[in-house]
Amino acid sequence: MTLLDVILSTILVVIYLTCLFTVCSLTFRKGYFLLGIIGIFIPVLWLVGAILPAKPGSSYSQRYEHERPPAI
How far apart are CA 27 and CA 31, in angstroms? Predict the structure, then answer.
């Protein structure tokens, strides 16, 4: 392996771990456990789970429910 290979591999690992601790945890808190688990192998699914609205009763919706104005 060349130095460039090591640097690029390190950057990819850092990006993956950052997504693991931020976007993946958000996906699980919003109640999308299947997307979170499958996202370990296909990380794009973490982004999908983070963008989708929280499921009713999830820890995310319970925490931020009082901050949203009621729907009209």
Answer: 7
Closest CA to 24 of 53, 3, 44, 5: 44
Whether 7 is in a domain gets the answer yes
pTM above 0.70, yes or no: yes
Choose among 22, 69, 72, 70: nearest CA to 50: 22
Structural domain contains residue 23: yes
pLDDT per residue as tens, the chain (72 positions): 899 999 999 999 999 899 888 998 999 999 999 999 998 899 889 889 999 998 988 888 888 776 666 666
Q: How many domains does the chain have?
A: 1
CA angle in degrees (0–180, nearest 5) for 20-47-29: 65
25 located within any domain: yes
